[in-house]
Amino acid sequence: MSVFEDLMAYERDTQALGQIAGRLGWDQETMMPRGAAPQRGEEMAAIEAALHARRSDPQVADWLVRAEATDDIGAAQLREIRRSHERAVKVPGDLAKRIARVTSEAQGKWAAARAAEDVAAFLPVLEEVVALKREEGQALAAGGDVYDAMIADYEHGTTAAEIAALFDAMRPRLVDLRARVLDKPAPTGVSGHFDADKQMALTTTLAETFGYQMRHGRVDKAVHPFCSGSGLDVRVTTRTSDDDPFNCFYSTIHEVGHAAYEQNIDQAYLLTPLGRGVSMGVHESQSRIYENQLGRSRAFTGWLFEQMVPQFGDFGIADADAFYAAVNAVHNGYIRTEADELQYNLHVMMRFDLERALMSGDLQVQDLEAAWNDRFAADFGYGVDRPSNGCLQDVHWSVGLFGYFPTYSLGNVYAGCLYQALRQAVPDLDAQLAAGDTVAATSWLRDNLQTHGGLRSPVETITHAAGMTPSPEPLLSYLEDKFGALYGL
């Protein structure tokens, strides 16, 4: 075997162990008995220690010096292995192990505190998580910006300053559009009781409609919907609400966007660094375009309305036009994952500023709830009513995902660019979606973006697929056109 082949064989085992770690995380969120949490923490710590040792092994550095790629794919494989190795050697193994253990335990404590509306019960473990992540960030930054080092784990090639500038450019148009929309009468929403089993049955139909391969996946329930895995085993979760079926349906479509990306990556990249989504921003571009530009379109909501009527009978909506308005209603609310397209980015911008302050030390954990509540009231004009609608609503900080939140809005920006290109490529898109047919749309995304996995950088991935350098203009224009028409602005 060549040096390159030796390195790739070693990396294949590392990737396989990473998939096992991911499966443990999936089980913890879905099926693990609550009493198993302390043991699961030890299991997660043990596998993270093994992974860290493999990624930082000096043998990898030696292989990287001597390995030669024979094509662009091989060069990309080496680039990604080198990036992983350089990160791993900066973080002490015992720190990586402690982070894995504490974040595993913190997830359960967050879920319990959220259910009990008890912020005080969660803050001690969150303080521990923040301290460990700061320590990790300092090791990775090596004297540079700690939060930039954290962002690099999710969207390499961008910085906090660049994201802040993007958000500053987007905010005025979003705030202005929101003010004009909220000045108009709100559309009628759905009403009645929506049986959970019927929601889950329709959820399976929706997943398959958007191309999710059930042979290589499954749909389960979790407190916070997520997607897990890659390659031949990609799982999604959703949640149900007796009075809000959209929570279930659009959470599912969102997570299927993530899952389709992973399932559609070229299988030649299986269990290699290129065999997964290139970044969380690009990942979010897939989940958001599936959920919003496709799933909340007038064409597709007309089809969804026809699927819901036989299942749920009269739910207070007269026709497909009223249903489209209800699906896209702009309204006051606390929950990011339930926010309308117009206000969603404002939720993300708030979290970006708060977690950046947490990592810099400008905001202390014990002051987080007050800071959240003050910022929310300033941004949205009303107060938080309870912790589960406030600083306890998201799972991200409990599991140490600092630097992740801004990728949601980056994903929206990327999705705007992709949708503009998609509409040009598929002129009869609306007619197809009205028939519940997403094949042309999802095939275009598969062929132009998803199949390539981690071959290119995040910006190069979007530029290649959309034919333009990422810009917020297509997203902002789309929102202004859509909600301007909906609300008669």
From TrEMBL:
Q: What class of enzyme is it?
A: hydrolase
Which domain of life does this protein belong to?
A: Bacteria
Signal sequence, renumbered to the chain:
none
Q: Where does Zn(2+) bind?
A: 254, 258, 284
The Enzyme Commission number assigned here is: 3.4.17.19
What are the required cofactors? Answer: Zn(2+)
Q: Known Gene3D superfamilies for this protein?
A: 1.10.1370.30
What sections of the protein cross the membrane? none
What molecular function does GO assign, one term? metal ion binding
Q: Which Pfam families match?
A: Peptidase_M32 (PF02074)
Name the family.
Belongs to the peptidase M32 family.
PANTHER family the UniProt entry points to: CARBOXYPEPTIDASE 1, METAL-DEPENDENT CARBOXYPEPTIDASE
Q: What does this protein do?
A: Broad specificity carboxypetidase that releases amino acids sequentially from the C-terminus, including neutral, aromatic, polar and basic residues.
Question: What's the protein here called?
Answer: Metal-dependent carboxypeptidase
Q: Which organism is it from?
A: Phaeobacter porticola
